[in-house]
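Listing S7. Sequence submitted for prediction.
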Amino acid sequence: MAAKKVIAICQSGGEFVTNKDGSLSYTGGEAYAIDIDQQTLLGDFKSEIADMFNCSAETMSIKYFLPGNKKTLITISKDKDLQRMVNFLGDTATVDVFVMSEEAAARNVSNMPASRSSRTTVSEAVVPIVEPIDVRVDTCNAIDQIDMELHETPLVSVLGSSSDDKHHKAAQQWENTITGVDQRFNSFSEFREALHKFSIAHGFAYRYKKNDSHRVTVKCKSQGCPWRIYASRLSTTQLICIKKMNTDHTCEGAAVKAGYRATRGWVGSIIKEKLKVSPNYKPKDIADDIKREYGIQLNYSQAWRAKEIAREQLQGSYKEAYNQLPYFCERIKETNPGSVATFTTKEDSSFHRFFVSFHASIVGFREGCRPLIFLDSTPLNSKYQGVLLAAIAADGDDGIFPVAFAVVDAETDDNWHWFLLELKSAVSISQQITFVADVQNGLKKSLTEVFDKCYHCYCLRHLAEKLNKDLKGQFSHEARRFMINDFYAAAYAPKLEAFQRSADNIKGISPEAYNWVIQSGPEHWANAFSGGARYNHMTSNFGQQFYSWVSEAHELPITQMIDVLRGKTMEAFYSRRVESNQWVTRLTPSKEEKLQKETTIARSLQVLLSQGSTFEVRGESVDIVDIDHWDCSCKGWQLTGLPCCHAIAVFECIGRNPYDYCSRYFTVESYRSTYAESIHPVPNVDRPLPGESSQAAVTVTPPPTRRPPGRPKMKQAESLDIIKRQLQCSKCKGLGHNKKTCKDS
């Protein structure tokens, strides 16, 4: 059964008046209509009200009257109160909601700020962008007459002057959007937008006398000015026609001097086309363009919000995208048979997590990729935030190969555990998999619980960042830089002796740091000890190309973002398959190049022959090669999967082919097997065909997390780059102060 929907007429800025019978009447202020239902959360409702009225959701108090009772106001303080209000309404399609600050509510109910008025509103706004409201009225069939101004809350005043024509080049194009009596429009929305443009071009402000789904009466805001216009529906048609218009202005620009205002919805409609061409249109550039072309001054926040509205107009509703997830999962499995696509919700039906692994990725990983997976995450700066978790493999040419990814509400131990369970179910291979991942976020425990046969190699980048963080404040910039460099050298060292030398260098600076390194589990991150086949890949951010795709699409609604990643992966699979068909070597290009370099070095080495499979090779050092066990004492062969120069020198002496001793994962044949399957398009992602999405019985609402205002924080730099120079006293050599502030002075 579909959730009951009502229209909440949210009102703010007026006051309550007590009538003779003790009932309360609300006068003055402004109003805005918002769709709600039994699934609407109070936090989302408050956020939308705050956006409309440009106020704080934290200090907001929301009240309403029970049906038939105009004496007692009920306060909405939690989700159940909001659901109860919807249930109380019965068959009523609208409800009056009064918005005020908590301070005002506590003072006196008679002084409450609110917004609906049975009289003409006195708002100075002239931007009646009301497309959403027209839609709600038409669909609900519930409002016969709304004799008040239903428009977006004004955001910004514009200091204008009739002599500012130079700044209004674009506005001059709108001088004839209103031509006079008998002019016709397709809808009231079209009429209101034309009226707004007309007012900007001619430099006056106006207010609504009547504004409903049947007629609109507008007059000049300046007191005593006779300018007015009346439009209504043309009989027996759906057209809107101007019936009356007084074109005379006697205000002589008084309204212009007082200023006119613009809503973010109007600005959004203005910049929409440019945003379509330039998705990276910056708020600062938006503000500059609006100022130059229309003479309207916006600050950064207003321009940013206008961009959000324009983006939603272009891309569709972020909220509705979550509700499309059940349909989207079915479409993925229909168009890409064998794929895994699933999602979960919380008890309140809000989004929890989504997982997808395409059939082409599953088959490609099984058939041609090394059993090596990199686990990492990246935050999403979309409207409802979230985190993307990804499992990336490496193909035979060391290119990224997305195996699976998920969108979750937050990066938690539980979400990682769920992701690993879904990943195991999708790939289902019997081989031991080596995972390169952070040791934090519960991954250490979850990997051993979910994958019986796996090896967890710690991400060197995360370890280095943790070491640097723990050392900060104790050592100078130079000392920390030396220790981080020695830490990396210890990790990459192939032999125990080289590892110990680097560790001793750290010990020479700080015994505590040395103990930290030894106790951090070198068997999980150092080449000299590691038992997993990580092929010399030391960090989990191997899939940077994939995360760059995410950064390009993370502001889209969730279904569109996922489909962009699908499209990018589909294109990569296709181009690599076509490219590999041109290769004539036995190994992939990058591996062929490395093998040739080792072959060049091998020509200068001396091989001492002996019976059996073990050989001694002399060069700058003496190394032992065992060709039966694919082993060399330099560890290069084992770490990379390609014969080292010592092994190649042996092969040339005994007449063996080095290609026969390369990992099969590096062959062109395996590479082509990796990309043998294709990912197929998923049509109608953003706009399902009529009737298709109605099959989904599950309702999914957005998560309760919303992006805070302001510019999103950038991702931190890598560990070696974040070591900043620390202040050091030239007198006492202490850290955190200089000579002037030294206490020893």
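Caption to Listing S7: primary sequence and predicted structure tokens for the chain studied. Residues 3 and 596 are 67 Å apart (CA to CA). The chain has a mean pLDDT of 80.
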